[in-house]
Specification:
This protein is an alpha+beta fold. Helices cover about 30% and strands about 20% of the residues.
């Protein structure tokens, strides 16, 4: 039997081994361009893929409830989803969650994009781009057009929606009680970046602060990409965390703004009106009901 000393040596060796690989080949790089590149043997050994959910039969679900939540990026605990907004001095596998999703969509790595949270209609890349920028012609440009000018490029402003403008994320997920495992679990279904409407953003003549989801991404379709992209770990930079791990582990703070109900899945704000505090209390009430469901299952 292995004594305590040998066990300690084994654990230390295991930690040091993983830490070496977690540095993304930093210590083995002969030139800066080698940083982040792994050999074929390393890639095969790592088997770096998101953890598969596995098949779950409907008969194993004893109880379930679909909830919609809002992740506010102004909260400190949610900042890993917002930063970095300036990508000049960071590695290629470190981007904000919005930039990660957008890059995956443009490269074709994410294809299941919808215009609502019930997944009724898929969005094309053209439709997505139309929500990310607008083109304005200045008054001087109109004057030039009226004067007969044909080239007014210098009088045209293009306003782009960037990761700095993202205020939060809406997520849709399912809480369910797995009777085989005998525990309450959560499965994330979809997420959507929330931002001001780019068509009215920055316009002084319109005072509308409504924020809308840009598009809904089916989460299982994005897991491979979200697993590749890493989030900075403030406690230990040698062990970065992937977006996939961060979301599946629910390492964020959120508020429930809707639950499936008999009233057509109405929002909390639709029946608790005019008082933000009462809306938060209602959201916490829904959370407590879900948490208590696991305890209620064991009451006889």
């Amino acid at each position: 039997m292995m004594d305590k000393r040998n066990i300690g040596i084994f654990i230390l060796a295991f930690v040091l081994f993983n830490a070496t690989f977690a540095q993304s080949n930093l210590l083995n790089a002969k030139k800066p361009s080698d940083i982040g590149k792994k050999t074929v043997e390393q890639s095969v050994f790592d088997n770096d893929k998101p953890l598969e959910y596995g098949y779950l039969d409907d008969r194993d679900i004893l109880w379930s409830k679909v909830v919609w939540e809002y992740i506010d990026l102004n909260e400190r605990i949610n900042l890993p989803f917002y930063y970095p907004v300036d990508t000049i001095n960071v590695s290629a596998n470190r981007r904000s969650l919005f930039d990660t999703l957008l890059r995956g969509i443009r490269k074709g790595e994410i294809t299941e994009i919808y215009d609502d949270d019930y997944f009724t209609a898929k969005m094309t890349k053209k439709e997505i781009n139309s929500k990310l920028y607008r083109i304005d012609t200045t008054d001087a440009g109109f004057d030039e057009l009226n004067a007969g000018a044909t080239n007014i490029d210098e009088y045209i402003d293009k306003i782009n929606l960037t990761s700095q403008d993202i205020e939060g994320f809406k997520i849709k997920g399912l809480w369910y009680f797995d009777k085989r495992q005998g525990e309450l679990k959560y499965r994330l279904l979809a997420l959507a970046p929330v931002a001001p409407d780019v068509q009215i953003m920055g316009r002084e003549d319109i005072d509308i602060s409504e924020q809308l989801p840009l598009f809904w991404v089916w989460f299982p379709d994005a897991r491979d990409l979200l697993h590749k992209m890493k989030v900075f770990n403030q406690k230990n930079s040698a062990y970065p965390i992937s977006f996939d791990h961060l979301l599946n582990a629910r390492r964020f703070n959120s508020i429930i703004y809707r639950e499936e109900n008999i009233y057509g899945d109405r929002d909390v704000a639709n029946y608790v009106k005019g008082n933000a505090l009462f809306q938060v209390l209602e959201s916490n009430k829904i959370k407590e009901e879900i948490r208590n469901k696991e305890l209620d299952m064991w009451n006889y």
